[in-house]
Amino acid sequence: MSIIKSFKSGLALVFEHLKIIPIIYAVNFSLAALLAIPMYISLHEAIGTSGVRDELMQGFDHEWWTEFNFHAEGLEKTFRPSLSGGFGAIFDNVELLLTGKFTSFGTGIFIFGVTYVFVSAFMNGGIIGLFAEEKRKFSTSRFFSNAGLYFHHFFALALTAMLLFLLVYKAFSSALFGALGSFTAEWLSDRAAWFVNLIGYVVLLLIVIFFNMIFDYAKIILVVEKKESSWLCIWYSLKFSARHLANAGGLYLLLILVGVGLTLVFALLDSLINPSQVLVLIIAVIFQQGFIIAKIWLRLNFYGAQLSYYNQGQSEVRRLKKI
Amino acid sequence: MIKYSIVLFFLFALVTASAGQSLNCDQVVSYQMKVALNPGTKTITGSEVLNWKNTSDQPISELYFHAYLNAFKNTQSTFFKEAAQGLARYPRELYDRPQDGWGFVDVQSISASSTAFSNTDLLPTFRYVQPDDQNPADETVFTVQLPRPIGPNETVNINIKFVSKLPHNAPRTEFRSDYFFVGQWFPKIAVLENGKWNCHQFHTNTEFFADYGSYDVSLTVPKKYVVGATGVMTDSTANSDGSVTYRFQQDCVHDFAWTACPRFKVAKRMFEHPELPPVQMRLLYQPEHQKYVNAFFDATANTLKHYGLWYVPYPYKQITIVDAAWRSKSGGMEYPTLFTTEVDWLTPDGTQDPHALTVHEAGHQFWYGLIGNNEFEDAWMDEGFNSYSDTRCENAAYGSRAYYKTYLSREGFQIPLAFPGVRIEHRTRRLENYRPHAAKDAMGRLPFAMMDGGSYGCNAYEKPALMLWTLEGYLGDEVFGRIMKTYASRYVFKHPKPKDFVNVVNEIAGQPMDWFFEQMLNGTGILDYAVTEVSSRPFVEAVGLVGKESNRQYQAYDEKKKSNRFESDVLVRRFGEVRIPVEVRVQFEDGEIINEKWDGRDLWKRFSYLRSSQVRRADVDPERKLILDLNYSNNSRYRESDSGAAIRWASKWMYWLQHFLETVAFFS
Hints:
The complex is a heterodimer.
Chain A: H1 3-16, H2 20-47, H3 52-58, H4 62-71, H5 88-94, H6 96-99, H7 107-132, H8 140-183, H9 190-224, H10 230-243, H11 245-272, H12 278-322
Helix pairs in contact in A: 1-11, 1-12, 2-7, 2-12, 7-8, 7-9, 7-12, 8-9, 9-10, 9-12, 11-12
Chain B: H1 2-19, E1 29-38, E2 43-53, E3 60-66, H2 78-84, E4 104-114, E5 120-121, E6 127-128, E7 141-150, E8 155-165, E9 174-176, E10 179-182, E11 188-189, E12 191-193, E13 196-198, E14 213-222, E15 226-229, E16 232-238, E17 243-253, E18 258-261, E19 265-273, E20 276-285, H3 293-310, E21 318-323, E22 333-335, E23 338-341, H4 355-371, H5 383-398, E24 401-410, E25 413-424, H6 431-434, H7 453-475, H8 477-490, H9 498-509, H10 514-522, E26 529-538, E27 544-546, E28 553-555, E29 566-574, E30 582-588, E31 593-598, E32 604-611, E33 615-620, E34 636-638, H11 644-664
Parallel strand pairs in B: 1-14, 20-21, 21-23
Antiparallel strand pairs in B: 1-2, 2-8, 3-7, 3-11, 4-5, 4-8, 6-7, 9-10, 10-18, 12-13, 14-17, 15-18, 16-17, 19-20, 22-23, 24-25, 26-29, 27-28, 29-32, 30-31, 30-33, 33-34
Helix pairs in contact in B: 3-4, 3-5, 4-5, 5-7, 7-8, 8-9
């Protein structure tokens, strides 16, 4: 069982099912557009006739933003300088995975996010269902029938995952950083305290990754082994992941590295684009949408590569059992 | 050996003289203190010999003293009670301190002597008083009765023995591990103004006020401690018990603060400028902040330069910069010839940290230090003047700063990310903190009587800074520059009142500006002018009955006879209560520009035009002189709307939301 081999197999799987990407992208785009329209209306009302629109076409106007933010309500409160380009928007979101502060953008966005988790759980059934089929050909109807078939299991898994992560963020993280805070309470060096806290974040990251990996394999086991209990699949996944910790973890980290690489390239290029003219604005929008598509592609790769890895591992076990 | 001693004597005399250089101030007090720090018990034990002069025209028989450290004695002090009411800028974690975390100052003995009476024990007359709130548990002010009154211009010598216990991690004065910052720590006489004691308790939202005088303080600390203090070190003596006594002296200052910590690294640099006196800059910094040494010096030097040229030269020989220990609450505070600043070891370039804080605290040397107004009562005259000046100085020295955000922030950790494309302009940056508190209190209200910490901050820092920027815009750079220079040089060491500044403005501006200050100091109104309507329509020749009596003719409306001229209207409105004359600029499609003036008194003013071109855009206050204007985006208006900018930023926002959705899909 090789990490690279699984990664390559995953890539091939995704390549054979590229048509899944437009479906997921369409869902993502449509849902985001639902909220982007009122945001556009708010912005247009605020700057459509004002002279500040000239500055805002050239770049972000911080002073205008402080005024807009002061009067902002609801969704408008989520408009902020870090969206201006580069790493800001990405860091704003990735940070949430380590802090768990998903309500920091307001209740509306939080509920929207939770809804999307369940929508994604539905689509994950379609993705893994198609990937697991021996007949490797995309079919929209099979995608949705698989999504429907596994939804109740995936819904339960998503709910369980959210509860578990709630524990991680609220209990474990608080206890961990509380202890580190007490440990460094009387230190006079901010640098030393920074590195101690960094260790805390690394531990938290590893735990978040590990739990996510467990739930990924739970979904894969549920589909591949046609299990009926999603709870038991978490247990099977835990056993599988523990048995293959180095390789399964290695594969997961490799996929994360691909994601980090993609993000770096995108953010660097994005920071170079300043859409002060309509044509550049269109290019910038297309470029951003390209990154969202790349992110969806990466999500498929996670499932593809891990499914391949699981299948390889299981066939090896079966072969050994025969011997 | 004798020759060597003589040389040493002269050297010592030279250094001592330089500490008390030719400063011309009315020295009301003279303190001689000998104190020792006990790091184990976190206490300072010592004696104080105070020579006080009665500068009033009345005999004085009662003396008032501040005992600031008693604010940290327990939660019943006025300081803590106000903090509990939510007045504080400080969190309630102030309460959560161990037994040795509380602070106090105990007067063990106090006696006095003068030409009118011999040394007399005053302790039997010692009593705590609460002039502001009658809170009997507050012990931050005490009085003693003299056996006989002190006449005008007479002096009294007061001998005090005291023990000061420093609180743990408390605002402005504290210990943390072996870091000691010692401020407001000794029994300090109040200010006698017009025959009455001007003495306030220690409040949560307040600063300080004291007479100018000379300080001669000997500090004994364990050998490993590095010490920084107000004034100039004139002597150091190694003691047989392994401690060292450092002597600091300074004339013409109104307080004395010091710090001691074994971790401090020391760096020195000279400030030199052809038009200003040289100043020795002494920096005490944290070892891990080595890379910011240049920034600390650079910001201090820029302050000495710009404030010195704009206002008055810094007259002392030395300025001490203290880089406060991490997590301490003493970072960012001013004391005579010494100030504290701070920086995070991971601060990104371009964000002007630690420059901004360093300029601000160094800038206090001029307003708080040299002008010395009563911060208890008119905080805005120090913090506000300094906030205006620091933005001006930062702008001149560094230009606009980059916005930055910190990620994964918690005590002891953050990952800062700078956004070089998002610029923060110094002139206007204080509007952000002004808006939420603009209408809570009048600026002229007593700072400690303000509604909350936000209102105090707004009225002490933001509003006065914006007010001064607005006044500069209104009167012009040159006139306003002369106003500030005249005010500063006229009132060095003089404790001016608000009226003194207003008088200088009226005098130099050559016009009465009381109407402006009346609105600013006593009003809570906001300044907000707006262009709310910009319209053009084709001019229609007269339709209806045209001509007189017998020549009167009926003219019907004829689409073909439409004129090629346009009637245009620009409606400018005053949304705020503050009234100030404004300029209005109207641009037409053919490039013509018309500048109008409006006295700004009514609620609105409509400007109408008949031109061959339609109006394109109108701006009220087009040159952005009125920085205090709360809503700047309504100052300008195009006749036609455009959606380009809204699409640009809505698409960015939508992209973030799409990414957010894909991020939370992690849990699916």
